[in-house]
Automatic annotation (TrEMBL):
Binding site for substrate: I137, V138, S139, G140, G141, D170, G183, D187, N276
GO MF annotation terms: tRNA N(6)-L-threonylcarbamoyladenine synthase activity
Cofactor: Fe(2+)
TM regions (residue ranges): none
EC number(s) recorded for this UniProt protein: 2.3.1.234
Protein name per UniProt: tRNA N6-adenosine threonylcarbamoyltransferase
PANTHER family: TRNA N6-ADENOSINE THREONYLCARBAMOYLTRANSFERASE, TRNA N6-ADENOSINE THREONYLCARBAMOYLTRANSFERASE, MITOCHONDRIAL
Domain Gcp-like: 27-310
Function text: Required for the formation of a threonylcarbamoyl group on adenosine at position 37 (t(6)A37) in tRNAs that read codons beginning with adenine. Is involved in the transfer of the threonylcarbamoyl moiety of threonylcarbamoyl-AMP (TC-AMP) to the N6 group of A37, together with TsaE and TsaB. TsaD likely plays a direct catalytic role in this reaction.
Catalysis: reaction(s): L-threonylcarbamoyladenylate + adenosine(37) in tRNA = N(6)-L-threonylcarbamoyladenosine(37) in tRNA + AMP + H(+)
Amino acid sequence: MDKDIYILGIETSCDETAASVIKNGNEIISNIVASQIQSQQRFGGVVPEIASRHHVEQITLVIEEALSEAGLEPMELDAVAVTEGPGLVGALLIGINAAKAFAFANGLPIIGVHHIAGHIYANQLMQPMEFPLLALIVSGGHTELVLMENHGSFKLIGETRDDAAGEAYDKVARVLGLPYPGGPAIDRLAHESDDAVEFPRAWLELDSYDFSFSGLKSAVINYKHNLEQKGGEVIPAHVAAGFQQSVVEVLTTKTLKAAKEYNVKQVIAAGGVAANKGLRASLEAAFENEGIPFYVPPISLCTDNAAMIAAAGTAMFVDGQRGNMGMNGRPGMSLTSWSK
């Protein structure tokens, strides 16, 4: 790069309204997030229409705050990167239209970023990415293993066949009467427990890197119902510990196996569930024992944010990728390699 590159990132795929300015793809100049958790907690999950309304209220404010904190004027930016998909279509459209309006008004190119690519590139904000690398993405809507041979090259080698890990966490938390979001609540209870209920592990076929958590969720529900029908006491901490042990063991074992098979130089974790203390500890211990470099972003960069979108957008910008004013929300957008 002949000069410093400044990218404004915008993220509105679900219930976080976020804007960020990133320098050269690896330095956070500003990172603003307006969370909707308190609003959505009343419903035990994200209500799409309410999420969209909150985005409308917050999007201009967070963009202005991101630029103010960065100390930059719009003409000093090189491009605008925005989450194009996947996500809630109404929520995506708020961010995309705000990005198009900002880009048009200031004569800037616009870049559409895949949300999961953003989660992967959050790691580049902490250390350089070395290829080939393996990325474990664990979030509310995604549980995937992605092999990268280079920037912009994404090979999906494993994915969830039903519930994603984060989705299973939220559903089990609801069954146990825990608050939304369920992941942090279960993680906290699991660490407080001195005992754990034994739940099954879904390994699927011998050579499969796919995941399945719906059976585990059903096992938790059946355990609770059967125990209650017998007049027994359900101890949420014991259930949470057993559930988390099952999820963590499957994720760690399959990620480690894939890392060895593909002889990667680096393994990274990304997504909201990567903030889970139990999972982080298990992955760190497993890869330290094998001598394979493993990295996971700080918790603030695991959950949805715009810094990760700007980081991925910078790599795309350098590679010559550009969007256009016809960009639309793509809730089912596939993670495929961007064109060279």
